[in-house]
Design brief:
single chain, alpha+beta, Ribosomal Protein S5, domain 2, Alpha-Beta Plaits, 2 domains, nine-stranded mixed β-sheet, four-stranded antiparallel β-sheet, 40% helix, 21% strand
Length: 431
Amino acid sequence: MFSAPGKAFVAGGYLVLDPQYKAFVIALSSRMYAHAHVDKEAGEYTEVCVKSPQFAEGEWCYKIDLSRPDLTQETHGRHNPFVKSTIDILFLYLTPEQNKRITITIFSDPEYHSQKDSIPKTSKTGLKTFYYHSQPIYKVAKTGLGSSAGLVVCLTTALLSCFSDNFDVKNEITLTRIHNLAQVAHCHAQGKIGSGFDVAAATFGSIVYRRFDPQLVNRVLESGRNEDLVQLVDNTDWKIQHTKCCLPPGIKLLMGDIVGGSETPKLVSKVLEWRKKEPERSLEVWTQLNSYNMRLVESLEKLQDFSKSQPETYKLSLRSLVEGNKSGFSDVVSSIQGIRQYMKIMTLESGAEIEPYQQTELLDYCMSLNGVLGGVVPGAGGYDAVCLLVAQGAIPEVVERTKHLSVTWLNLHEQETGICEEDVSSFIDFL
């Protein structure tokens, strides 16, 4: 059984579309899980059935003729483009010789979806709780933590494990193979080449990320040939960057659901149109925004080093932060303020509601509270969520003092690890 984390895209929104810029993505404790079971007997086709018991009508089954893996047949269940594309890409890559009957069961932690009209079920050990919904998955509101990327990465990992005797997700070659296949499958499902930051975070965890050249994936999707896919996945340098980067000790991510919702493609199209019309001005804004993004990453790395080299002094700084003295963390504070300043400029000049007025009011209020280093509207912005960087000791007060506002703080924290193997005994009550 394998799991992949959700994500909070803290710095690098929009810039991540361009390979010359980097982004900072935090992996979250909410995870997507995939359990694989292979039957000993199989018929004249390979059969793959993907089940998601937390949702009504949550079953998608397929037959694959191994001589023609490009002709995958859906046998029953509603169409799920992410499941179908993952299966298509994996069997195009693997070209196995022996038929198998495979069942993959998918679970997702509560924070991925709205919990409205759902029933919690807890394991006998009390270690895991999943919410079961009365509606099909496409009718249940998402919270923007990267559920489709988590699904594709988990499903890719689980399927690959069914065709390998020595499968180890800690192995760098295996991890890269999972990432590359999942990127191709996710792009195929979306019908476009995205930046890939969400798939990268689901695979590798909290990272500073720089994207791949879209033409790499485009060429393979256009050709649809096994040899091209194998060459891309196993023998091509994608020139991406996924450097480990995490929050320093005692600084936590606080993620707030606004229960609003935004259409990311519309926001992105407005920003790209602005870039096209105002190339010089947009380059100026993006250059400044990038400098603040990288300053934030550098500031967090320096605090990480400080916490190791002078642990006692660092602890004193944290205590002061909880009491409202932010001077020991001024670089982080000013970096986040700079990021917001240029995101607001993009909001005003492009017409895309990246940091709408209501979000500005909320973030400004939160910034005035003790222990809060700053906050942003993550990713592409809009009305989906906000995230704050907060001293751990100040979180109860922040939650208490924002009770009157329209924000629900999610039960989440940073979990640096990407894809990992799980102990199936913790999930046995759900299988």
